[in-house]
TrEMBL record:
It comes from the Eukaryota. Its main location: nucleus. This is B3 domain-containing protein. Residues 60-119 form the TF-B3 domain. GO terms for cellular component: nucleus. Transmembrane segments: none annotated. It is found in: Nucleus. GO terms for molecular function: DNA binding. SMART domains: B3 (SM01019). Signal peptide: none annotated.
């Protein structure tokens, strides 16, 4: 990961991550506990994310209740994953198969997370 000198744009490989911040978001549908250990941030999101520092290290997920969880972002190849701390977020929000999560960036890979059940109803009692 490199920084393009003088432009405040972080590069992932040879592709720039956008410098404009407009609360970019992405979603994940949970299937068969495949997302229990980690969640991959989609590469398409990375091209539009506002970044002012390297996108790894400790970040914050804010759940529907307003409670905050510390997670660690990890880079593997050209992918970025939400890892350490994710399992706790998963358990404490009682996530199950087919839950639909919307991750809305609130700066430097910190996210507000909305959780919907398989019927499309937002889970708010956390």
């Amino acid at each position: 990961m490199d920084t393009d000198q003088g432009k405040n744009i972080v590069l992932l490989g040879d592709k720039p991550l956008a410098a404009e911040f407009h609360r970019q978001s992405f979603f994940k549908v949970l299937l068969c506990d495949a997302n229990f250990e980690q969640v991959r941030i989609p590469s398409g999101f990375l091209l539009h994310a506002q970044v002012t520092e390297e996108p790894f290290g400790v970040r914050t997920l804010t759940g529907p209740s307003g409670h905050k969880w510390k997670v660690k972002l990890s880079i593997e190849g050209k992918n970025i994953y939400i890892k350490d701390g994710w399992q706790r977020f998963y358990r404490e929000n009682s996530l199950i198969d087919y839950d639909f999560l919307v991750f809305r960036q609130c700066g430097n890979f910190n996210f507000d997370v909305q959780i919907f059940d398989k019927r499309g109803v937002e889970k708010t009692n956390r």
